[in-house]
Write a structure and sequence with these properties.
The chain is mainly beta. The protein has one helix and 41 strands. It folds into two domains: about 300 residues, Glycosyl hydrolase domain, family 43 (Tachylectin-2, Chain A, 5 Propeller), CATH 2.115.10.20; about 210 residues, Jelly Rolls, CATH 2.60.120.200. About 50% of the residues are buried.
Length: about 525
């Protein structure tokens, strides 16, 4: 027996999709605009997880250059059948207004540690695609359908269409098999078969505080589907739960005959109701009642913070707090923004033991940014890096950023002052508004090596710097970082779905695309919880 304390995968890990192969459990989560695409994990006990290589490593599989904030990978689905893993995903190109551009793709592999195939294009009728492998060998794609007509643009039901593995395309007629309930926003379909029924699991209520999971079933794959009048899981009527925004899950059974639902949740800071860690992955045990419906094992619809799981504990080695860059590849935890880490934006071989980032587009760019970052996974955390940088003008800058997206971020950077001395500045973007809490930069003379640090304590962010790595000086004061959240977007009537990352970056607004005029070298990156 092992105890899960939710969330089981903290920090930005939304839309969990799980499958079991023997005694092994594999889980995929959304990554939105961060590259490489889709986060994969492996577990033996559903509590302890090891990070696997992301499957979408090539631009031919995932081209996100120019994708909007919170675009890119939405709602992947990982399944397994007859020795092959199937991954279906959306690369969202546009989702503002009444139109949504949501092409869906399929890649496969027989080795999760190896390369995945080139993608097969499926459709663009909606997002959250998944694959169902029926016991007669036939395969089906499910996805929510988006209706862009002016009079009723909205979620308009769950679509199902057969997929031909031989022809590598969808065949036959698409059917809308389930319209949803009065809660609305029916999405995230996953199909299961048990005791003669086809069970359809969907999310509903949108991704904020009305979110939830609903079950429906039918004896016929094409329906009609009756839905369970009681949601499987939601906290829309329980504001006291520490796990909020619960929904969008998937179902897995164990060899012991027990059933569990990994699902997404948010942990708001009570003061402002902001989830600065993004949407995280949690788990709940479920049971089948006498009427053939799924219920939370603890009763009710509010999932518990703690969950006992009847499996033997298997723990994986913890990753060190400090990453040094005497490496051939970046660790799995590090991501880049929209584009792959390659010679255009950086190198691990240019200077032994250092991560070199070349000055590219500005920190607000949706195209070619030289930025390497990892998730914020704790409400109290500290990150530090040591940087060497030789700016030649004020348009060249490099430093340490805390980023939700290019509309909401904090940036402590070095640049060159008008007097020829190097200068440290703090730059903030808060829902499209820019401000500099220092007004003027702090001169560090001719120093080219500096230690940069950020401390986050719930909704407060503080930067500091050091020239010797021992004595740190605060810079920029205490900053409100509640804008690093989906909820901040709601305040101004926009949508945001991503999560907070902390990382290293280098920008050159005077340089060229082919010949970068500057670069910054980073010796280490330390992240620790407090």
């Amino acid at each position: 027996m092992v105890k899960a304390i939710n969330p089981i995968i903290p920090g930005f890990h939304p839309d969990p999709s799980i499958c079991r192969v023997g005694d092994d459990y594999y889980l995929a989560t959304s990554t939105f605009q961060w590259f490489p695409g889709v986060q994969l994990y492996h577990s033996k006990d559903l509590v302890h997880w090891e990070e696997l290589p992301s499957p979408l490593q090539r631009v031919s599989q995932l081209d996100m250059k120019g994708d909007p904030n919170s675009g890119g990978i939405w709602g992947p689905c990982l399944t397994y059948s007859n020795g092959t893993f199937y991954l279906i995903y959306t690369n969202t190109k546009n989702f503002h207004g009444i139109f949504k551009d949501t092409p869906n793709y399929l890649v496969t592999t027989t080795d999760l540690y190896g390369e995945w195939s080139e993608p097969v294009y499926l459709n663009s009728s909606g997002f959250d695609p998944s694959m169902f492998h029926d016991d007669d060998g036939r395969k089906y794609l499910l996805n929510m359908r988006w209706d862009s007509r002016m009079e009723n643009h909205d979620f308009s039901g769950i679509m199902l269409q057969e997929y031909s593995e031989k022809e590598k395309k969808l065949i036959g007629k698409p059917y809308v098999i389930f319209k949803g309930t009065e809660i609305g926003a029916t999405e995230a379909p996953h199909m299961y078969k048990k005791d003669g029924y086809y069970y359809l699991m969907v999310a509903e209520g949108g991704t904020m505080y009305n979110h939830g999971i609903r079950m429906a079933r039918s004896k016929n794959l094409l329906g009609p589907y009756e839905y369970d009048p009681t949601p499987l899981l939601t906290v829309r009527n329980d504001p006291t739960s520490p796990l909020q925004r619960t929904g969008h899950g998937s179902l897995v059974d164990t060899k012991n005959g027990e059933w569990y639902v990994p699902y997404l949740c948010g942990r708001p800071i009570t003061d402002k109701g902001r989830c600065i860690l993004g949407r995280e992955t949690a788990i709940a045990r479920v049971v089948w009642d006498d009427d053939g419906w799924l219920r939370l094992a603890n009763g009710g619809t509010t999932p518990p913070v703690e969950c006992d799981i009847n499996l033997d504990e298997v723990v994986y080695p913890t990753q060190p707090d400090t990453v040094t860059f005497d490496l051939s590849t970046l660790p799995h935890a590090f991501k880049t923004l929209r584009i792959p880490f390659d010679h255009k934006i950086g190198a691990l071989s240019a200077r032994r033991g250092y991560l070199r980032l070349y000055g590219r587009d500005s920190i607000t760019s949706w195209n070619t940014q030289a930025l390497v970052a990892r998730r914020l996974q704790h409400h109290h955390a500290e990150a530090t890096t040591k940087m060497e940088f030789h700016p030649e003008n004020f348009q060249q800058m490099a430093g340490l950023t805390v980023m939700y997206d290019t509309y909401n971020f904090f940036y402590l950077y070095m640049s060159l002052g008008d007097d020829g001395n190097n200068v440290l500045r703090v730059f903030v973007r808060d829902n499209l508004k820019f401000y500099n809490p220092l007004m003027k930069g702090i001169s560090i003379g001719d120093a080219t090596t500096v230690y940069l640090r950020v401390n986050i304590d719930e909704l407060t962010l503080r930067y500091s710097y050091s020239l010797d790595g021992i004595n740190y000086i605060d810079i920029g004061g205490e900053l409100d970082c509640s804008n690093l959240s989906d909820e901040a977007y709601c305040d101004i009537g926009h949508e945001g779905h991503t999560g907070t990352f902390i990382g290293m970056c280098c920008h050159d607004l005077s340089g060229g695309e082919l010949e970068p005029a500057c670069y910054a070298d980073f010796e280490f990156f330390t992240y620790r919880s407090k």
